[in-house]
Amino acid sequence: xxxxxxxxxxxxxxxxxxxxxxxxxxxxxxxxxxxxxxxxxxxxxxxxxxxxxxxxxxxxxxxxxxxxxxxxxxxxxxxxxxxxxxxxxxxxxxxxxxxxxxxxxxxxxxxxxxxxxxxxxxxxxxxxxxxxxxxxxxxxxxxxxxxxxxxxxxxxxxxxxxxxxxxxxxxxxxxxxxxxxxxxxxxxxxxxxxxxxxxxxxxxxxxxxxxxxxxxxxxxxxxxxxxxxxxxxxxxxxxxxxxxxxxxxxxxxxxxxxxxxxxxxxxxxxxxxxxxxxxxxxxxxxxxxxxxxxxxxxxxxxxxxxxxxxxxxxxxxxxxxxxxxxxxxxxxxxxxxxxxxxxxxxxxxxxxxxxxxxxxxxxxxxxxxxxxxxxxxxxxxxxxxxxxxxxxxxxxxxxxxxxxxxxxxxxxxxxxxxxxxxxxxxxxxxxxxxxxxxxxxxxxxxxxxxxxxxxxxxxxxxxxxxxxxxxxxxxxxxxxxxxxxxxxxxxxxxxxxxxxxxxxxxxxxxxxxxxxxxxxxxxxxxxxxxxxxxxxxxxxxxxxxxxxxxxxxxxxxxxxxxxxxxxxxxxxxxxxxxxxxxxxxxxxxxxxxxxxxxxxxxxxxxxxxxxxxxxxxxxxxxxxxxxxxxxxxxxxxxxxxxxxxxxxxxxxxxxxxxxxxxxxxxxxxxxxxxxx
Length: 676
What we know:
five-stranded antiparallel β-sheet
């Protein structure tokens, strides 16, 4: 006979159920959806007792399996742990629930709830044992509940269920299994929420009352009809209180999420303000890189990360430019590790996983660069978060982050996992750092170009100041040399004065040609003289940089029809590019091939070709070497600007500039001009 006294509980639960649907539609929270489905199956289980007896046994099957699914959904919502089978991630709650549902269908659908004996009976202890074995494996996983409690709870109560199955039958055992699921839900609520609130109190109270149905297995309960009725009423109303408590708990969670969202917004705003107020120098690249410790200090102070280190690329290798929150025991081995990292392919998206969805931060494994007995291994620093500083072709640096701090007084599960809100302000800072560093490198290149261009102006001033006194010195020295009144030692001294004065005059004439302004109209220019002047002026600079510099000019080279100043500027741009290419060469390869730059002038048909070759790295895209928006070669991102100006000058002079890669290594820029 149906328990009509449960009708009020059924009606109240049905009235509360739409509230779960409304909460889920607002929050789209998976846990709220599982709670809604759990109480939906519980409501269906209660409603199945009012079905006509003509539908038995399937009404009993629907009632019992719905209750098993209901309690399983509560467990799964609070402990959504998974295990891997091949490539699939499977929730533990699925293999835990399937044997219980199978036992309910077997008992009420196949055997119609009758007593089972003989070999068929052993199917029930087997199914129950399978379920609670999965429960023990579930308890070993790292989650909100301590492992010892999860394993002990599943093991002890699982053995109790099997014992009751053998003693009082599978029906009582399945009822006890439902009670154990509800009690475990109470335990999970306490450990997951870790707070005392109206929602937690009502939920714990309701589920505890709901789990009291295990008292029906006690023999003395059946002898007290009044107690039996009151217990059934308490269990039914416990479902209502549990539903009400879970609704309040869902509202509390939504309020907490809103509050945490406002707190994250406030923290992100403070971070952005601090990062915006950071003053970055744009004078020289060395001055910019010296600010790395200050950058790391600001990141550690205003973000959730306790440790930060900035790697920057220099001469084709990474180096530790600065760190914060790290003592020397960590910084020193990290400095050595940075030098072992190859620039090519570092932090490529296809080689490192993303730290969070919709972020460019990567989760970097340091093990490939760790040495045997590396101190970083002993310190547990084998994985870090890396925010790359992307250039046009590669990562020109990275901000390494470690030590995630918790947001509140307690450390919630997963607090060490960063979110987009934690990483976005830092990524904006790193993007600003990279843009400023590139701008500083560009300014430095332009300053160098201006420095070379100013040599002509300086040469003009020097020639004006030295020419007149040198003429007087050379004139009197020549008169003395032609005089017959000098003895042999004096004549040798005067001859030396005349020779050195003439050498100074040749140098002044070279400077004069550099400083001389030419008209826009092309004229016949001697390439050999122009290259000889450039060699004299810049050879000291090449010696200072330890670069072998060679100039080769074919004898009888014809003149070219162009502007001398424009051609000189084009050659200087090519030399600047070559210097940058060889200086970024890996020092470890210098013993194989020394750093060298060679300028060669030849004639072919009606053209004169000036080739500026170097022993550095070749062009990334030689067909687009003169495009200012494409890097000419890795590590020399701003060279494309100078080469673009070079190509423009040659085009204005009715010439052509081309680029080729040399084998096995090196590259050359070829300037072609019409012979006069």
